[in-house]
Design brief:
Layout: H1 23-34, E1 37-38, H2 50-61, H3 75-89, E2 99-103, H4 104-116, E3 122-127, H5 131-139, E4 143-148, E5 150-152, E6 155-157, H6 160-166, E7 171-177, H7 189-201, E8 205-209, E9 235-240, H8 241-245, E10 252-256, H9 259-269, H10 278-288, H11 292-316, E11 319-320, E12 328-332, H12 341-352, E13 354-355, E14 357-358, H13 366-369, E15 372-376, H14 381-395
Parallel strand pairs: 1-13, 3-4, 3-7, 7-8, 8-9
Antiparallel strand pairs: 2-10, 5-6, 9-10, 11-12, 12-15, 14-15
Length: about 400
């Protein structure tokens, strides 16, 4: 038959066979078909600052970035990234050799793992993890070794003994995410010190996803891993404009790292997208230079939204874990008499007119994540108030 393959071998290579369609696609389709409020996928429902959007329009009209930008990224953005890291964290990076612009954080993760991992290398990742981590480790031929964050005193915590025990002679790299999606935890100074000491002691590379660096709440503090002793030369730090400026469709991310690491990651990146987001790079350069008042207002707005949704979830009977960073709330559904997050999330649109994500999709140990469900609060206040009311009506007795 025309178009059919004569081989019995599956079309999708075995490294990716386990992944299938992402849960986000399934849940977003469910939101559309049922007219539900989509608190599943983490993207804002409003655009970011008008002056940043206008900066992109200006770049388009001025002919900046309409053709291929330079491979490492436009100099203006690389300089702005370096200035931002210096101003906020006292980290000094050379814009020419230690900054690389990527097609969002997703490409940064892929390029870093494809560049730094050989087939058979073990990659230790904090579980639950963002779904692209597992896929990128698989594409690189690596073996993922999950270390599970577990709830304790209202937040998810890293067991440092478990982390140390996960490292073997085959471990090449630690993949760290803080502020952490989906649990909303922010690794403490003590936890990060232990990660750094382990990496130095065992001579490991570290890829650290810090895209929610500007979304930390209350007493939590974002501490870049590269600032810890011995870490600057072994850490690839990933940042992104999408989460901080609410332009997720622009797909502008970056890495900062020592020259050898940047060169390695660029070698993989050039064969993925080569370059991307030309005019948007100029706009993001301007965004990174916004006054501190922007970042403060952004954080306070998200904190208020977190509190609004968290209150609604508590009133509805969920156990709600403390969100110290990101724009996600993780809940435990066992107080509602439920134990299966997948079944719960598939039924939730009909029961409450709301869509959420089962955290189990972010686990290798599915049973460890079974009762946890994630809600995104990066939506308009009136949308969150409506969702909170729907959840109360559906579950509160």
């Amino acid at each position: 038959m025309t178009g059919m393959t004569s081989s019995a071998r599956p079309l999708l290579n075995r490294r990716l066979a386990e992944f299938g369609t992402t849960i986000f696609a399934e849940m977003s389709a469910l939101a559309l078909s049922t007219g539900s409020i989509n608190l599943g996928q983490g993207f804002p429902d409003t655009d970011g600052p008008e002056e940043v959007r206008e900066a992109a329009v200006r770049a388009l009209r001025d002919g900046r970035g309409n053709q291929y930008p330079p491979g490492p990224g436009v100099p203006e953005l690389r300089t702005a990234v370096a200035a931002h890291q210096e101003r906020r964290y006292g980290l000094s990076w050379d814009p020419d050799t230690e900054v690389l612009v990527t097609a969002g954080a997703t490409e940064a993760i892929a390029a870093a793992l494809l560049a730094l991992v050989e087939p058979g290398d073990e990659v230790v990742a904090l579980e639950p993890y963002y779904d692209s981590y597992a896929a990128c480790i698989a594409m690189a031929g690596g073996t993922r070794v999950p270390v599970t964050l577990r709830p304790h005193d209202g937040r998810f915590r890293l067991d440092l003994d478990e982390l140390r025990a996960a490292v073997t002679d085959r471990t090449r790299l630690l993949l760290i995410n803080t502020p952490h999606n989906p649990t909303g935890t922010v690794l403490t100074r003590e936890e990060l010190t232990a990660v750094a000491e382990l990496a130095v002691e065992r001579d490991l590379l570290v890829v650290t996803d810090e895209v929610y660096e500007h979304l930390v709440f209350d007493e939590a503090e974002h501490l870049p891993l590269a600032t810890f002793p011995g870490m600057r030369e072994r850490t690839v730090t990933i940042g992104s404009a999408g989460k901080t400026f609410s332009f997720t469709g622009w797909k502008v991310g970056w890495i900062t790292a020592a020259p050898g690491l940047v060169s390695a990651v660029r070698s993989a990146k050039q064969f993925l997208t080569y370059v991307s987001s030309g005019p948007f790079q100029y706009a993001v350069a301007e965004a990174l230079a916004l006054p501190e008042s922007y970042f403060t207002a952004f954080r306070e707005d998200m904190r208020a939204k977190r509190d609004l949704l968290a209150t609604g979830l508590k009133d509805a009977g969920f156990e709600v874990f403390r969100t110290a960073g990101t724009y996600f709330i993780t809940t435990d559904i066992r107080l509602l008499g439920e134990t299966d997050g997948f079944a719960f999330c598939r039924a939730l649109p009909e029961r409450a007119g709301v869509v959420a994500i089962p955290n189990a999709v972010f686990y290798d140990h599915r049973e460890a994540g079974a009762p946890f469900v994630r809600f995104a609060f990066c939506k308009r206040t009136e949308v969150l108030a409506d969702a909170a009311e729907r959840l109360r009506k559906a579950f509160a007795h």
